[in-house]
Specification:
The chain is an alpha/beta fold and 462 residues long. It has helices at residues 29-34, 38-46, 82-85, 98-111, 135-156, 164-178, 188-192, 196-202, 243-246, 254-268, 314-325, 341-347, 359-371, 406-415, 449-460; strands spanning 11-14, 19-25, 53-58, 64-71, 89-92, 128-132, 181-186, 210-216, 223-228, 230-234, 274-284, 296-298, 304-306, 332-337, 353-356, 377-379, 396-397, 423-428, 432-433, 443-444. 34% of the residues lie in helices and 22% in strands.
Amino acid sequence: MSEVILLPTANVYIGAEGINLIVNDQKNFDQWRNLQPSHVQNWLTSTSFTGKGVALIPSPTGELSQAIFFCDTEDFFCCGDLAKMLPPGKYHCDEKNSQLLEKIVLGWYLGSYQFCAFKSNQDGDQKCQLFVQDSALLERVEKTARAVYLARDLINTPAENLMPQHLAWCAEKMAQTHTATLRQWVGEELLRDNFPTIYTVGRASEHPSRLIDLTWGDSAAPKLTLVGKGVCFDSGGLDLKPSQGMRLMKKDMGGAAHALALAELIMANQLPVRLRVLVPAVENAIGGNAFRPGDVITTRQGTTVEIDNTDAEGRLILCDALAEACTEQPELVIDFATLTGAARVALGTELPALFCTHPDVAEAVAQQGSEIDDPVWPMPLHKAYRSMLNSEVADMVNSAASPLGGAITAALFLQEFVSPDTQWMHFDVMAWNNRKLPGRPVGGEAMGLRAVYNYLAGRFEP
């Protein structure tokens, strides 16, 4: 497992070594060109460079003297592909605008990401080194990059190498690094201490279910609790998924990856909160003892749930974790989950759905996301749809009969297990890039992570 979690591979250092790298807005090209020596202007003309992309500028004697990158600097990911556009070598960026420098460095990090743990050649193809002189900015950006890399690595890892015990290993390493406390309930201990839905969903797997519980920070600080759906592989259970629907289900622990990555960012930046992270970790497998459609489960809260669909298992393991999260009366509870295809139908794969009991909080998070190109979209907890979860034989069903409004009914199901006086945010995320974008390669992705952290930093930092 230790060989799988890779963390930052980008070559970014403090210093002033290498070829001068300048990033400029493409609308400034003509003005910049007119200020250059004649040999530079002649070179740009002879290479037909028109002010978009990378221009490699030679010195009068023919050596590479500077690299110029013209782009739309208003785009947060304007430098997301820059590290792969340059020839191998060392580059020094002395950009004075801190906002642009942050885009350059973070774009370099996120665009350099590669998941090569299972490739014969693990060196990858990243051969460019970036040097900057702002050590404080580099330290801050690297913490963000480490959190994003952690989420991506966890999501990209095959299920064979990432089962509940491996998620626990990751949490244990984080606890050691940041002097946090880790507790776990494993297998039958879940029944003993009344976490029945977590146990039931995963009981057919050879990998025992567990609830991972990490705590960190001053006990007197404001309480913040994160919950992440940790379904390490989802076959659909007895309501078996078709092969196409099962192909990417290694990513069904994407909510857990988000919760752990956000915890890493919070602890690395020493945010003044009393943090608790709860990760219910299971495999939704098939076996003679798998839970069945029509079964009734009594949850930790005491609410009885009739199983309409065994493929709606994520909300089941989350309901026990959310009930536990509220016992300490935290100031804020946030859960992340790859919960519904309905959210993807509504918003597409690149825009996470945000459900929140406090609209002002949701709007504040969405605003943070819009400023740093980490978007989330507030969705309604439409109370009229709650009746769609009614059951004839239990207090409620785990999945509404109609797929319409499925993201909303799933959120309403979770809300039943959140204390009415608790501020709660629920993120229904894809956790996967289906297409390559600058700084965002195909594969596992942290969605809404930076937006949520920026909101929390603004809310809890003095």
